[in-house]
């Protein structure tokens, strides 16, 4: 995205969020997000329908088009425009008349109204009472006409009793501009949807974080795993951020969205709906199971073996194992403790990983070193099985919902060499080298910048530095003759950098008692020489220290003298 497009979206974000906050002060963020995001979804499907309808009208009236219906066929054209098949053949949601945005906006301030619906060639009358009820009926009609959306949309605007505020909010969302240079309508609305999710996460605090992962972290993981094609899975998918970023990655690298298949699971019913709407807004085909359900007790994809798995599970989740047996086949490397689900998530993901697949998950830093309740033994078993490919230590203050220090585990079932890709769409030209018995450690705690007083973020250069280091380590070293980098054109060959990255052998990890904290391996960063001779620096610093000691003694004497005057001296 160029700077002009990004500025356009940033300005749009601020305007919409500021105006939206003024409209619904009576609702907290947990309720407000469903009100706003439900309307954004309805606006998108309606606009997509309207765009397809305009295309069809032009085709029906064009003598050179296969859909041409002849001269003076206006009545026939109107009938054909209400034919559902013309829309579904282009993966456009069929939107019934009462759910179309123009009608909703026109009737938002009407207490009671009527709309005529055409069904199977017959006209039926529909009456409504209030905008809240109209929105509920509209969403129910969309859901009924599109089986993919069954039980996805939250239909309780009437129950919230916010009819007085809804007309203003509808007018606000109607202002979202969908015509802008190279940005497509779905990109603009998808961006607005994602921005609002992030703002709601910050507004809700801890609860909001259960479904929202910082965009820069999602981008980093996707850039490192590079899901060009195959099955992509997230067992605790939240609002679907990893899938959205995977789609963007494929598009930006010249691939086709149809090359990846999306599978997810989410236990929170409202979050499950948000994720499904997020995918629908972007036109992505997805399988989130038949219903929201616990990953541990009601696995919605029991036979799935995914090529790429990415997840940000709840940190240090307790009491996760109700209804889970100790002899569950997923616990190949040890039974996870009841008081912490970190290694339960990890082993669930490994269980669903394809033989040549790769995975990444965010966990609390304690997962790298804890030896309590069998966690140390599980980590040792994973290391001995040579599954751990890379460990990344993250800086603090990245998350809206927790200050717990975090890291990223990258695991793979195969560290064998692979041939060059053949330079397919978006793929790297270089093959991977054999990495058996080797793990890469990256300490990224000093990267990033403070975007405000509370939150830290990664700049694009930070993401590129980490991802390039990982790919340089994985891929075939460049030949001197070709001058090609390890990760492709222009990328340097991998080398250890003190204080930042280290390629360690299994023997090194054993010496550290199977602790995977990157700081133990990368060492301290090299200090730039300042040109001052050691003897001279030592003398200068000693004199400075003595001077400070003297000043400290003087201040202490003044304090004692003042206390004595007040009668507190000894």
Observed structural traits:
two-stranded antiparallel ribbon, Ferritin, alpha/beta, 570 residues, 18 helices, nine-stranded mixed β-sheet, Rossmann fold, 41% helix, globular
Describe the protein's topology.
Blueprint: H1 3-23, H2 29-60, H3 74-80, H4 85-88, H5 101-106, E1 112-119, E2 122-129, H6 131-145, H7 157-160, H8 166-174, H9 185-204, H10 215-225, E3 230-234, H11 241-252, E4 260-264, H12 269-281, E5 286-287, E6 306-311, H13 342-351, E7 353-364, H14 375-384, E8 388-393, E9 406-412, E10 438-443, E11 449-450, E12 456-457, H15 460-474, E13 501-505, H16 506-511, H17 519-522, H18 534-565
Parallel strand pairs: 3-4, 3-6, 4-5, 6-7, 8-10
Antiparallel strand pairs: 1-2, 7-9, 8-9, 10-13, 11-12
Helix pairs in contact: 1-8, 1-9, 2-8, 2-9, 2-12, 10-11, 10-15
